């Protein structure tokens, strides 16, 4: 098998299939909640935590740019972002879109402040800090695949377990409240799932692919089905399939970055689905 | 008491002399952009001249964001030394404006064009990473020395002396590199890093240089490229690959895993300084130390018994 | 401390101010239309525009970049509209799809052409740096009236002022249509308001404000100025007119104070270097938003600013 | 005036790729209160949108006072379902009613004190003058509906279309609103409302249109709103308690 497609391609393929599946699965609910841009916001909100993580690891004398310490910092920072978004949407009349845009810009701006502080103070090897947690599919490592595997199992099983309360919450928050699933808890759960997918995805496949994978397969699936559960499964399958085909194309042809190819493939699938479903509709 | 008095007299003399010296134009406020230039200027300039680097030694020039104090420093500088060749892309406009009033030395552009490597045949842009070749850096040192002595004619003797010493160091560095790398066979002369920052090193020491991804920071490697490199490593029996101080090491580690799966033992040769120098105050935080580190690391990774602590026995191990 | 004010600080302060005001004005509408993330979307979709204009014109000249970025922004708006018409996508999903596809297309273009060999990324090609907008011939207020010195005023300031004036004028003229079509779309359509044109106009204004400001002051300020001042004003008042005025005030405070804080406070605290003005402006606008939210919680009564009548 | 306000012939409208109403025909008498009644999914909202000229029709004609809805638009006012409105929008009662004049004012004409007086008099008509400075989210459902009625009054349109004006409103407010509508009728306005509550049709309205994809019957309530017609429209047969009252 390794002769046929190569070790790196095999790893990337497995990682992309798994990540495509779980992000498509979670993405369906994020999509129905109209929160597709949450991942973009959270990804930007990682910057201050990333730099604080870097400072902490430098002062503790750890290996500089120990990527798991940086990732932890990034995760905490984005989690704080989730809390602020929740606070703004629950406590004020500001919309969800406003909350995520505010968190995105302010956190990122504060991150830049820290970055410009660090760049001249010269505490260590801060060069390339921003790039450090931005991954790409083609650089997939075995440990990445393991992490993706664990995260996928975690997220997908959370979705399976909570599919009914999540559906109820998205469709009719009051209903879910009455059924014993507090709105803010469900909202937090969904944000948390998006957060985990975003942070891991950021490190392993890159920002743009994360945003696309949480959104486009879900939108495509929505065209084909009206049932939430089959939509989330279909979305997972679409995500997985596009990721897999994208990886193979990028392995067979030169100069094609895997992430970008996957995004474009997903968009083509969406376009085709629009055309086919509309033709089907007008024939009825 | 006596000492105090002498000190008092000395201080007064200095106080009277200081403005006088400034008037004579023998004080010069120099601002350099990148650490490599600041270090070079420090080596060459007379000891009483203050030199400020905008970017700390560990800062990647591609990612630098200038703040107000940097702009103030530039507007107050008597001489600005920048690298040029589009290295400080984010400051091009600023330099264009400052150029009207300030003397700006584009030290990297002092290197004759025939020594520069264009990005591709059609492009008028050159690869800016010239510091990787100490021989080319001599042109930079020359340009700085010439500029300094024209600004500080009274110190020209000291400058010439410093300059000669620094150039001698560069030549030593060049020879040291050739010495330790001489025993590396032709087919093993491959330098594989995360991005294309080592082309001048390649042309100076006859290495094939390969980067996983292109120059642009927005670009991303494809799987085809990774598989291609894995094949190349195995065919060429390449022993080591390198990570860079300012780049993520993921792609490089993917290569190590990819070749390991096919039974090839590819070592991580160590970390090289590509766009930024080592921490301030260390030997690696100087130009010579940075290149020494790179040469020594590469040689040792390729199986040469180079001195562990480098040319000057000062590398951190 | 204030020597060289006209050389170093004058133009950045004004450019930051006018860019912030343009963004905030449009942002007031976007926040009410639940399109706050449009500014962030535009910041990602400009990449292919920049790549194409680089491929065509072969350089990174500011005008070509602006035009390329503008065209990419408009194409993205079209894509968002198409997606919303033909799928069940909400705004957020349509924007997420568009921004990821456009950015991916930009990356593909870089890789498939010679672009990969050039330092070509949005950060350097389009995004400006507030602090760099020095006025080399600016010596005193009199320089403003000196035609020779005026020539060296950075073009970014001129653009920011023009952008601000155009956006303000259009908003003043279209004020009623903006309100009515944002509040009650169907009713606006029946009342004869060209709602399609108004929506397209809002998106167009957002693109113009965003691209001009990206070029002058960078992307960080833009998104925060689109969102934070209008949001802060929104929680403090119930009148749209008051909201606009308050947001303009917050925006101006963030821009001017942010530049000053970034430039002087670290120095006063004994550090050698300043911090990013753009980052500080964004942070400050966030602080204002949080304060506004806390303030509105304390003062439950919504009428503390006398309700104006149209 | 005894002319018809609206005449609809063989109207078929597709909505989201599905045929929502088919071969619909009816006439609405001028200066009357007319209800559109039918089960959920009968195409009532689609019909309203078509009458407003907001969606394209596949077949058939609509005429409002002898011309097309689009040409007649200036003389139609529309009261949306309350659920369609973002009640947190930063506007007070006065602002909302003033919006009724925006179509007439266009972009540049000044909002004069005469306009202000018109807004106040419309607010007085619906007995909401005291609430002019109140933010709209701080009103009760009935009050919100009255504000929108004031908006249509200030427009001074000949034809008023309402989408479920009594949705989510208590009985007392309902009576107030019916009273307002009746006064508008006396002022010569023609009023068409989508209505849900079968038990009040006879009390509130003069005419009724029974709709379930197609029109089952239309005309004066007393003639048309019969048990058999309603059962035909709703496809069920135990509605005695609703229609047997009058």
What does this structure look like?
The complex is a heterotetramer of chains A (284), B (317), C (310) and D (246). Chain A is globular, with a radius of gyration of 20 Å. With 284 residues, chain A is mainly α. Chain A has helices at residues 2-5, 7-32, 38-45, 47-59, 67-91, 96-121, 129-132, 142-161, 163-171, 173-178, 183-204, 207-224, 228-252, 258-283. By secondary structure, chain B is of the alpha/beta class. Chain B has two domains: 22-177, Rossmann fold (3-Layer(aba) Sandwich); 185-301, Nitrogenase molybdenum iron protein domain (Rossmann fold), CATH 3.40.50.1980. The longest helix of chain B is centred in the middle third of the chain and has 26 residues, at 156-181. The model of chain B is unreliable at 1-25 (pLDDT under 50). The model of chain C is unreliable at 301-310 (pLDDT under 50).
Task: Give me some keywords for this one.
heterotetramer, B: 317 residues, alpha/beta, Rossmann fold, four-stranded parallel beta sheet, two-stranded parallel ribbon, globular, disordered N terminus, C: 310 residues, mainly alpha, ABC transporter involved in vitamin B12 uptake, BtuC, 74% helix, disordered C terminus
Residue windows where pLDDT falls under 50 for at least 5 positions of chain B:
1-25
Strand content of chain B: 5-15%
Overall mean pLDDT of chain B stands at 84
Supply the CATH class of the largest domain in chain B.
Alpha Beta
CATH class division of one domain in chain C: Mainly Alpha
- How would a crystallographer describe the biggest sheet of chain B? 4 strands, parallel
Number of helices of chain B: 10
Write down the Rg of chain C. 20 Å
Structural class of chain C: mainly alpha
Query: Strand fraction band of chain C?
Result: under 5%
Overall, the morphology of chain B is globular
**CATH architecture of one domain in chain C, please?**
Orthogonal Bundle
**End-to-end CA span of chain B:** 49 Å
- Strand count of chain B: 8
- List segments of chain C where confidence is low: pLDDT < 50 over at least 5 consecutive residues: 301-310
Assembly state: heterotetramer
Order of helices and strands of chain C: HHHHHHHHHHHH
